[in-house]
Amino acid sequence: MRTRLRDEHGASAVEFAFIVPLLLVLVLGIAEFGHAFQVQGTLSAAAREGARVMALQNDPAAARAAVREASPTLDPAVTDPQVTVAPAACPATGTANVRVTVDYPMPFLTGFFGAEIDLTGTGVMRCNG
Fold first, then answer.
1. What is the pLDDT confidence band of residue 115, given thresholds at 50, 70 and 90?
2. In what order do the strands lie in the sheet with 116-126?
């Protein structure tokens, strides 16, 4: 009986060695997903803020600045070419909508799942408030 227990101690270590990589990938995946979820929320909020500024001020430069100011936690920071404002100016009459889209290449934290993933945040608002 005693020899049988001693033989099974090594089996536990081998089974643990098989499971550790799977658990490590699972933990890294959870961390990367959580980070991407947080970045997506930041992008959506920044795009909504840019759409609000564009709808009220009718100034694409101010809308881009509002997007940059609403996303200070992103690293690397959002740049002007990543922000699309359509249309470029709100019409004086009518009920047109303005759409602000932020395309952001989010780098992965660990690099284990690749270099980056493209995320998009969009905000739409009626012109002139």
1. confident
2. 83-86, 97-107, 116-126
